[in-house]
Every structure is written in C-alpha cells, then in structure tokens.
Design brief:
It catalyses: ATP + protein L-histidine = ADP + protein N-phospho-L-histidine. Keywords: Kinase, Membrane, Phosphoprotein, Transferase, Transmembrane, Transmembrane helix. By secondary structure, the chain is an alpha+beta fold. It folds into 4 domains: 199 residues, no CATH class; 106 residues, Beta-Lactamase (2-Layer Sandwich); 69 residues, Helix Hairpins (Orthogonal Bundle), CATH 1.10.287; 189 residues, Histidine kinase-like ATPase, C-terminal domain (Heat Shock Protein 90, 2-Layer Sandwich), CATH 3.30.565. Helix content is 51%, strand content 15%. It has 14 helices and 16 strands. It is elongated and about 155 Å long. It starts with 21 loop residues before the first helix and ends with a strand.
Length: 601
C-alpha cells in the first residue's frame, strides 16, 4: 500500500489532541475551528482595508493601476466565501485546495500589491498573515514552505528591480534576506507555541473530564449512602445534604435547591450547637442525639463532625455525618448471627440426645399404662417431643449444620382448612376473641407446605399483627385468595400505624425489631420458611374497608392449578364457645392501596 502523504511532513499542532476515541476527535475539531474562524476574520478585515486603500488611491489618483481594485475586490469576496461557506478541513495533505485558496491567494494578492505599487506604501508586513496561518493551522513543513516562498519572492522582486533600474542595491537585497529570515523565525516560533498551547489545552480538557467524572462518582456514592451527610458553613446554613440526611431531618427528600438552616427548628438546635462547637474548638466532635418531631416518631442518631481545610481567606466547612442508631444496632445484631448459628447448632445437637431418651421412655411408658387419661398424657408427650424434634431440625437447617430436606415431598395441604384450624388455635392461646377476622376464598386450593411450618408461619404473622393492631373488632384479617393460575395468596392485615422507612429496610433481617422486648426473629423465620418452599413474602401498606393498615402477604405455589374464584363465600364453623369474627365479603371486592387492586395478580 502507498504510504500516507501526510506521514511525509511534520506533525501539526493538533497532534496533541490525537486519539482514537470520539471525544479526542471532537476536542481537536473544536480547537481547529476556533483558530480557523479567527484567521478567516483577520483575512476579511485585511482584505477590506486593502480594498478601501485602493479605492482611496483610485479616487485621488495617487498610486497604482486601476485593476488592483478588481484584485482587492476579488480577494475580499474570496475571504468572505472561505469564512462563511467553506467548512474547515484539518491539515492532512499540504496541497489541499483549502490551503491553496487561503495561503496561496493571500501570497499572490500581497505580491501583486507589492510589485505594482507606485507610492511609498510597503505591503511586506502583510506576508506575516499567510506565514502564521500555515505555521499554526498546518504543519511546520507547510509553514517553512510558505516562509520560503515569501523570501524567494522578496529576493526575486529585489533582483528584478535592480535589472529594471540598472541599480544593484546591496541594501535592498540585505533587507529582503533579513525579512525572509524573520518570516522563518516567525514560522518556527509560532508553530512551537501552537503545539505547546495545544498540549496544555488537551491536558486541561483531559483533567477537566477526569474531574467531572470523579465528581459524578462522588455524587452517586454520597447519594447512595445510608449515612446522612450535611455540609454546613460557619453560619449554620446547610450547603448540601444527601437524601439520607434530608430524610432524617425532614422525613422526606427535599428539592436540591432547598436551603436548610440548622437553627430554624427547635428539634435541630442540638445539631446546630454541635456544629458551632466544632468551629469554635477547631476539632472533630461526636455525640448521640434524638430528633423529636410532632409529625413523625422520634429518631435516635449518632452525629459526628469533621472540618475541611481552609482555602485562603475563606473559612472551612463542617461536614456533619448522621447515622441512625437503629441501623447500627441492626448491623451489630446481624453480625452476631454467625456466632448465634454456631451456638444454636451446638445446642440443638445437645438437645437431641435427651430428647431421644424422652421419646424412648415415653414409648415404654405407653406400653405399660392402660388408663385413658394416662394414654392422653403419653400421646401429648409424644406429640410435643416430635414438635421439638422438628424445631431442632429447623435450627440445624438454618445454621447450615446439615443440608435442607427435600421440600418436593411436602404434603399437599388444603389451605383454607389448615388456615381455619391454625386461626382457631391461635385465638384460644392469645385470647384474641373478636379481634381476628378470617376470610377464605380458595376452598379447593392445596399448597405443598409442611403442616408444622405453615402453622409457624401463620402464628408468627398473627403474633406480629397483634402487637401492632388497635385491638378493635376485626382489626386483624387473615385472608386467602387465588393469585394467578399457579399461586395462592395468604395475607395477614392489621390496622396498625405505618412503618417507618428505616424499619421497612430491615423487616426480614434477623435480630432486628422496633420493640425492645422482641427477639427480631419472627419475620426472619417466616422468610426462611417461605423460601424453603418456593414462596415469597413481602410487606405493603394497604387500604381495607376504607381503613389504612399493614399487610404481610405470602405468594405460595399451588400444589395444582389454583381454582378460579367462586361466587359463594366459604362459611366458617367452630365449636360452641369459640368465636372468630367472620365477614362474608363478596369475592369480587379487592383490597386496594391508593387505588391499586390487591386481588389476584
């Protein structure tokens, strides 16, 4: 292949912007276009001045032939066309038509004016324009060639003048040589300065792009932090705050342009005092505080401050970090889970031996006793021993001391019947008469769930609902209904207050609870049990009978195709004396959340 012509010449100034990616090419083209426009405006200005000068000399009949006016007019038109209608092209080939129409035309016009002048006007200085244009926008070779052509013209013009006048003037030749040498120096210096400036501009653009990218990364990191970050000036004005900090202070995320003043609210006075103390002492401080707001529950925070370095006369800023203590405690409890798992596995193994002895002793005792009352006692011992054995197995599975059992062999339970039995048992034990309302809408649905595990799931959800419900009649609802063609929806609704955002983030984490007396394992066990059988459990704020409430629902795979909804309500019957509030609602009435249906989905 033929070698590229441009490789035969020195690199141009914009080689500092050379790159393969699009951004480098765009930067190079923008810089080239700016300089091109500047030179084209200079050419138009000089052409207009030359035309005005020639018109003036023509009117006064003081110098030059008349056709020089036509030459200057054509020069001005060519300069205007190049500035407005010619798209600049980067220098790749030295004899590109663009360079001929700029550098070549200028040299030719200036040479004609210099050669056919009559007055004492000297146009030699004008040759600096094409030399600079070639040296700055083109390669060094093109700039030197332009300077050489101008020098040759000056020397030739001096020689012809000597022949015509028969006066060989050494001074004129010397002046032409010095002028040409100056043009060579101008070409070299202008080219080197252009390259230096281009490299500085490319470096500045690269640094600016890197700084912009780093700033964007910093913004994303700060906005995604769960730790609140506020930047406060010495006057207590919050310059910036990430969404976590806005949520802690305001309970919601405010617009970015909103300005906060720490002394504006009484609940923030302690934070303002902490910032003032930090500026006064000039050192980092930290404390635990509580934000009490009438519109939302109080929030315990750990606040710590850091001072930025002062820049010149401007004072530094205080960076205030806020951390929700409940989340800190939740992380600590989560870190304890590994050690608790190991301890639970050890305890479970220790329980197995005496439990096996109790089971064997009870079996021997059952063979000896004959009275019906004693038989009932041995059966109770056997049932509870089996329950303890299953609990031990569950603990070992959670602790990963042994692999999970195959859940594909779980029996297909009739969901509505099981729900009614568990609900009746729970009402007896918790004495929640008339508080629970049971609404079963899947009479023929079966789910692949271990009976004991389903019972534990329902008991945990009902106990959790009872702790937060108002205690009014039907303040807790237990609902079953088909969800699509292959899932059954089991939900427990209560009329409790809405959960805080900080609590919702850790609902199903172990050892996390908004109450000091709760172990924080109930919802975690529910999630583990659901995941074991391919079910999903979630929380949402819902509206039922025009009343807001909290709903925990599980989508359980059906053991067979889920039946379509029937127009009749399944009645609930319990032994006399055991009452559970029931509500015969039409199947077509869905629960809604802000207008969104909670029916089958």
């Amino acid at each position: 292949m033929a070698r590229d012509v441009s490789s035969q010449f020195s690199p141009s100034w914009y080689s500092a912007f050379e790159g393969t990616h699009t951004q480098s090419r765009e930067q190079r083209m923008r810089a080239f276009s700016r300089l091109w426009s500047a030179f084209m405006r200079a050419r138009v200005f000089i052409a207009a001045v030359l035309l005005s000068l020639q018109v003036f000399t023509l009117v006064t009949q003081s110098a030059g032939p008349q056709w020089l006016v036509v030459v200057c007019s054509a020069h001005l038109c060519a300069a205007l066309v190049m500035m407005y209608f010619w798209r600049p092209v980067e220098h790749r080939h030295p004899m590109h038509i663009q360079w001929v129409l700029t550098i070549g035309v200028d040299v030719l016009v200036f040479a004609l004016l210099q050669s056919f002048q009559i007055s004492n006007i000297n146009y030699t200085a004008l040759f600096a324009l094409p030399v600079l244009l070639a040296a700055i926008l083109g390669s060094l070779t093109l700039g030197m060639a332009t300077a050489a052509s101008v020098t040759l013209y000056l020397l030739g013009e001096a020689g012809l003048s000597a022949l015509w006048t028969s006066d060989l003037s050494t001074a004129r030749f010397l002046q032409a040589g010095l002028t040409g040498t100056g043009f060579f120096l101008v070409a070299v210096l202008a080219h080197q300065l252009a390259i230096r400036l281009a490299r500085e501009e490319a470096l500045a653009a690269s640094s600016q792009a890197a700084a912009r990218a780093q700033a964007q990364v910093n913004v994303l990191v700060i906005e995604s932090l769960t730790v609140g970050v506020l930047v406060v000036d010495p006057h207590g004005v919050v310059r910036s705050a990430n969404p976590a900090a806005q949520s802690m202070l305001l309970g919601q995320v405010s617009p970015q342009a909103a300005k906060l003043l720490l002394s504006a609210r009484s609940s923030w006075q302690h934070l303002a005092h902490l910032v003032n103390e930090t500026f006064a002492r000039g050192e980092a401080l930290e404390t635990e505080t509580t934000i009490d707001d009438e519109n939302r529950p109080s929030q315990r925070l750990h606040a710590r401050t850091r001072l930025t370095a002062q820049s010149g006369r401007s004072a530094g800023l205080c960076v205030l970090f806020l951390e929700d203590l409940r989340e800190v405690e939740a992380r600590v409890r989560t870190e304890k889970l590994a050690s608790m798992g190991r301890m639970s596995a050890a305890v479970a193994h220790e329980i197995r031996n005496p439990l096996s002895a109790i089971t064997q002793a009870n079996a021997l005792l059952d063979e000896e006793v004959q009275a019906p009352a004693q038989k009932r006692l041995t059966r109770m011992i056997e049932q509870n021993a089996q329950r303890l054995s299953r609990i031990v197995d569950d603990i070992l599975n959670v602790a990963r001391a042994q692999p999970n059992q195959d859940t594909t062999t779980a029996p297909a339970l009739p969901l509505d019947q099981t729900v009614r039995q568990v609900a009746l048992e729970w009402v007896r034990q918790s004495r929640a008469d008339r508080i629970l309302g049971v609404h079963v809408h899947a009479p023929a649905a079966h789910v692949g769930f271990d009976p004991e595990h389903l019972r534990r799931l329902l008991i945990n959800l009902l106990d959790n609902a009872l702790r937060h419900a108002s205690g009014k009649p039907s303040s807790i609802r237990l609902i079953t209904q088909p969800s699509g063609n292959d899932h059954i929806r089991l939900s427990v609704w209560s009329d409790g207050q809405a959960l805080e955002a900080s609590v919702m983030r850790h609902l199903f984490e172990p050892f996390f609870s908004s109450e000091s007396r709760s172990s924080g394992l109930g919802l975690y066990i529910c999630r583990e049990l659901c995941e074991r059988y391919g079910a999903q459990i979630a929380y949402r704020r819902t509206r039922l009978d025009q009343q807001e409430g909290n709903e925990f629902y599980a989508l359980i795979p059906a053991a067979g195709p889920a039946p379509a909804r029937e127009p009749t309500q399944q009645s609930l019957s319990y032994p006399a004396g055991d009452s559970i509030a029931t509500r015969a609602e039409p199947h077509s009435r869905p629960m809604t959340t802000g207008g969104a249906s909670l029916g089958a989905r």
